[in-house]
Design brief:
- There is one protein chain.
- With about 130 residues, the protein is an all-alpha fold.
- It is built from 7 helices and no strands.
- It is elongated and about 65 Å long.
- The N and C termini lie far apart (about 45 Å).
- The mean pLDDT is about 85.
Length: about 130
């Protein structure tokens, strides 16, 4: 917002590029998908009570974050509009595979339950 307030031509080019061609559609979809949809769904109690629905919503929010990064980076490469290719997905798959590899190595060495917690038995009996 400060860039818009200053009205510096070199800096406003960033916003002009993302508000033209097919990038404008993605920008509007991000506004709805990153704020209005999660906000509306998180207002409902049914969404927050069921872990499956909450996990789906978390996945939606993560995918919107990835789309946001896509909209920030790629308009500089494709001025004429959106051009999706397999090379756009490879970094995401590579980072995800690396994180999964290290997570699976660490999770084998650690206990998922607190071993010496005196209230462990009591906490396992609690039902919602």
């Amino acid at each position: 917002m400060l860039i818009w307030y200053a009205n510096i031509p070199e800096e406003t080019e960033y916003f002009i590029l993302r508000n033209t061609e097919s990038w404008n559609v993605l920008s509007l979809f991000l506004m709805v998908g990153r704020f209005f949809i999660p906000f509306g769904l998180l207002l409902l109690r049914a969404t927050k009570k069921k872990p499956e629905k909450l996990c789906l919503l978390a996945g939606w929010i993560i995918s919107m974050q990835l789309l946001d990064i896509y909209v920030v980076v790629l308009p500089e490469l494709h001025h004429s509009g959106v051009h999706v290719s397999i090379l756009d997905l490879l970094p995401v798959v590579g980072i995800g595979a690396t994180l999964a590899f290290f997570y699976l190595r660490v999770v084998n060495k650690a206990s998922l339950f607190p071993v010496r917690d005196p209230r462990l038995i009591e906490s396992l009996r609690i039902l919602n």
